[in-house]
Design the sequence.
């Protein structure tokens, strides 16, 4: 909007002069753009909260470019172009400033934090805009009237206060199922605050699409809204490097039925029909895929059974008190050695000795693992985008060791199948499938159980098991690499995948 920008520059110039003259309404701020003002507030708040406090409160303020992008996606995909705009968690005003810059003028905001609202007011003034800002709890406030458009970055993190959990479960029964994510409550609340046909565009973690415990939430969202857009925005928060977020745009029903616009990093992917979202709302929405990637996943599923039906998939042992139970030394006598995430490299253990101390209260959990070989799996943190990047690392753990809960474990009574599963999980086709399915940072057994195991592998695991054993024994990187390629080829053929399908994706 050139006019708006022009106006902003003019207002900024006036304000610059006023600040030089010490205007008390500006709180003595030297930095003058709305963005700089918001950024300074963000810095001060994070310093005051500290890293832990901030994570607890789930407060990550939105960079201006990201707020502008979410708003642009909402305006483009929702069919709502103007009217009454609300940010129910306005904070220092990043989204309302973006809305003002986009030419929207009927702006409203709630927040619990009066300091943040003061900054939002100043930032909007610097853009030549005003908003009605109210200190209020957006989850409880009775609004004067429904709005046309909500744009917001609500707080994240789990709700730990019992009374707040009880309130949220009463208000939004679809949050049942375990931990309650704060942002999930705001997804549902936003749908109460917009008019039918109005849109809610929220910047939220994308885990609600994949988590099995979020099935009721997905069902409720799809019952109340058309999903206009799901856009992966990566990890935009400098202070929360592992938090992957998306712009989700919901249009409250009744509304025009539409296919969901899906994109990642500015690149459009395959759209998803409402029918597919309804059909898969219990299992999860795995939508960040191109048309060719969808074909690849479909072909892999067609020749497979879920891992959960081929072996037992479980968590490693949770001690509840690692400083007490995990001794950093070699086991002595009949003591038990422990394996954690740090000990796993592909196909092998690089063990940093750990011993189980004070085992009595954990006897039942230990018992479950001792006496049989398992494959231990860990998720590694990588931002690599190449299709062959490894997201999972796995190795066979001996019958006398116990895996800790940083690992998931696969076990079955059949050693050939177990070794074949090791090669299967380390192979590129499977890593690729896993990555196309979820962006979640953890390897939860629930997600592993859904991975496709070729029926041909279960019929005859011997070839892959043999390759896995060779690979585990390979010392030289060159031979390990050559074996990796042979294992990939073997797994592709067990899935019955054609070169055309693989190359296209
Ligand atoms: C993640 S910050 C986002 C702020 C701003 N919208 C942005 O994008 O930069 C979340 C904001 O929500 C506010 N907040 C948390 N719980 C709230 C509630 N129940 N009602 C209103 N505001 C709330 C916090 O004070 C904080 O300012």
Sequence:
């Amino acid at each position: 909007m050139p006019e708006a920008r022009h106006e902003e520059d003019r207002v900024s110039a006036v304000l610059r002069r006023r600040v030089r003259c010490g205007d008390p309404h500006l709180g003595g701020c030297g930095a003058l753009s709305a963005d700089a003002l918001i950024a300074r507030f963000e810095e001060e708040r994070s310093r005051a909260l500290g890293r832990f406090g901030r994570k607890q409160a789930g407060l990550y303020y939105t960079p201006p470019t990201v707020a502008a992008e979410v708003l642009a996606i909402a305006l483009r995909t929702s069919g709502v172009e103007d009217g009454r705009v609300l940010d129910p968690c306005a904070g220092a005003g990043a989204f309302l400033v973006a809305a003002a810059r986009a030419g929207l003028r009927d702006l409203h905001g709630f927040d619990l934090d009066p300091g943040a609202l003061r900054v939002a007011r100043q930032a909007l003034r610097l853009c030549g805009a005003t908003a009605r800002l109210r200190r209020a709890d957006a989850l409880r406030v009775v609004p004067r009237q429904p709005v046309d458009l909500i744009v917001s970055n609500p707080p994240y993190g789990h709700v730990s206060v019992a009374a707040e959990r009880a309130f949220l479960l009463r208000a939004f029964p679809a949050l049942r199922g375990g931990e309650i994510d704060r942002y999930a409550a705001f997804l549902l609340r936003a749908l109460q605050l917009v008019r039918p046909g109005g849109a809610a565009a929220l910047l939220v973690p994308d885990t609600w699409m994949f988590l099995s415990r979020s099935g009721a939430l997905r069902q409720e969202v799809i019952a109340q809204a058309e999903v206009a857009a799901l856009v992966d925005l990566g990890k935009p928060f400098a202070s929360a490097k592992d938090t992957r977020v998306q712009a989700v745009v919901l249009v409250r029903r009744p509304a025009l039925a539409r296919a969901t616009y899906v994109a990642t990093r500015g690149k459009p992917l395959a759209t998803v029909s409402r029918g597919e979202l309804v059909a898969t709302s219990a299992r999860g929405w795995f939508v960040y895929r191109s048309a060719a990637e969808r074909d690849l996943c479909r072909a892999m599923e067609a020749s497979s059974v879920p891992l959960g039906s081929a072996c037992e998939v479980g968590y490693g042992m949770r001690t509840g008190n690692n400083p007490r139970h995990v001794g950093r030394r070699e086991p002595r006598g009949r003591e038990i050695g422990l394996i954690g995430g740090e000990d796993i490299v592909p196909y092998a253990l690089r063990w940093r000795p750990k011993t189980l101390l004070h085992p009595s209260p954990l006897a039942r959990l230990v018992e479950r693992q001792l006496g049989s070989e398992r494959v231990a799996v860990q998720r590694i943190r990588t931002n690599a985008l190449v299709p062959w990047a490894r997201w999972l690392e796995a190795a066979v753990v001996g019958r006398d060791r116990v895996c800790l809960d940083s690992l998931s474990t696969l076990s079955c009574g059949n050693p050939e199948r177990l070794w074949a599963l090791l090669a299967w999980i380390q192979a590129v086709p499977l890593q690729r499938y896993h990555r196309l399915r979820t962006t979640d940072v953890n390897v939860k057994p629930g997600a592993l159980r859904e991975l496709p195991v070729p029926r041909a592998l279960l019929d005859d695991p011997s070839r892959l098991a043999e390759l896995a054993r060779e690979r585990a024994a390979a010392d030289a990187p060159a031979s390990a690499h050559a074996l990796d390629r042979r294992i990939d080829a073997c797994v592709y053929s067990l899935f019955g995948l054609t070169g055309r399908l693989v190359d296209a994706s």
